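Shipment paperwork, digital attachment
Item: protein structure file
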Amino acid sequence: MRRNNETSLSSFETNNEIPYEKIDFEIRNLVRLVNCFEGITTNGSCAGHSEGEEAEITFYSQSQESVFNLIRALPFWGVKGGFVNNRAQTQIIWMDVTPVENNKLVYCLRIGGSPLYAQRALLCEIENSLSKKVTHLQETHLSCPKCALPCTQDI
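Attachment content:
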């Protein structure tokens, strides 16, 4: 799915069905997991399709606590890097925020890496981290109606 540059809240408030089949397969499950966080609804995503292009997931949150819970479930925040076989690799997780009408905010979770395979590995690492957090609550909560995965009320 291409990036959604629209910052209107109308798509958040009127569309309860998320067309997962239209989301880039590299990021589809990650979008599904993000939607499992209580109070968070995704609005757009892109896996990044070339070297230097970040993956991103845009979302609306009902509270700062929901955003905090999502960030806390990530494997790290910021930049990490190193050398593998004498080749530099970097990975980055960050977020930007855009104010929209009615004093609401649209968040954009950005995931980057260089070379591109480092970014793809980071997508998997984030997916695993969020999945573990969701799975941890599986025994104590019912399924999330938004994504059919365990609810993350207490994350």
